[in-house]
Design a protein that fits this description.
This protein is 25% helix and 27% strand. It has 3 helices and 7 strands; from the N terminus they run αβββββββαα. Bound molecules: nickel (II) ion.
Amino acid sequence: MEEIPRLPKTEPLQLRYYGDPVLRKRAEPVQEITDVERLLADDMLETLYTSFGIGLAATQVGILKRFIIADIGVVDDEEEFEPLKLFNPEIISVEGECVLEEGCLSIPDLRAEVKRPEQIVVNAMNIDGEDVQIEADGLLARVIQHEIDHLNGVLFIDRISGIKRQLLRDQLKIIQQAERPD
Ligand code: NI
């Protein structure tokens, strides 16, 4: 009997939600790209697409590696967008400021306006282990900043000022206590 070659199987990973202590931890730099990282990248993309998100940090699936993905192709259909897979992303310069509404797969059903720099330049390592520099503005800049925050244990709600954050307190409590299927 002929052996059927087995393709690596990607599968959505378990998302971690607000209240999970892992979301407050600092992720560790990735030294080199191996099959483990490549599989993680594929699984995270699968997770992103099945959750209808546009960005995801490894922290959000409980893996404390400095790795983020972003795909704004679903909302920005004017341009062909190749999903970004960035290891050890570091913002090296910022410009401007803008307010945009944000949400987070780890904080379901909550959206709020957040002020952040409008344009950014990011140094990172790509999936082939090469150093890359990315200039981003608009939605992409926003997603990248949000995901890099995750790598430092920071959530977008931390960037909302006093009174507005007070108003979200009850909602956050409900999210934290929600029962979810494994
Ligand atoms: Ni998020």
